[in-house]
Amino acid sequence: MTYLCISASDSSNQNLIQHFKECIKFIHECRLHGGGCLIHCLAGVSRSTTILVAYLMTVTNFGWEECLTATKAVRSYVSPNFGFQEQLQEYEVTLLKEYRAWIQQEYGKNPLSDQEDLQCLLSQQEEKANQQQGGLRETNWINAPSQTSSQPHTTYDSSCSHSRWMNR
User: Fold this and answer.
1) Per the record, which residues fall in region Disordered (predicted)?
2) For residue 29, what pLDDT is reported?
């Protein structure tokens, strides 16, 4: 088992961009060699999510908001702090194109189905949102109180079979 540990506080002032390339390289190599890769921080909400979103942005053609939405499809309570969201926006505008070229040059064409997996998760999230909005409209129409329930784990349609890597 190989570890990569970066020292970073969960503060909006923390510069995570400085760690993106090292983390992206580590995650990608783990995945290319068939190993699992656990990305974590204390609560699994802000720092680890920011690193994961930066990785997903680099290996797909999606921007930070779409990658965050896809991540929320798997782990609903992720929420990078405002400073980390700004850094993801900055990364998208300043370094992303360069990092995508670097990873392509360094490792060649990505043999993983990341683009398709994220598209599937985004489609599921959109469908779920549409169903919830339809339910809200129906609830409002009959003037009944809305009911919500929280589920700690999200279930997935088997049509996203490639999203298994996100559930390891």
Assistant:
1) 132-168
2) 95
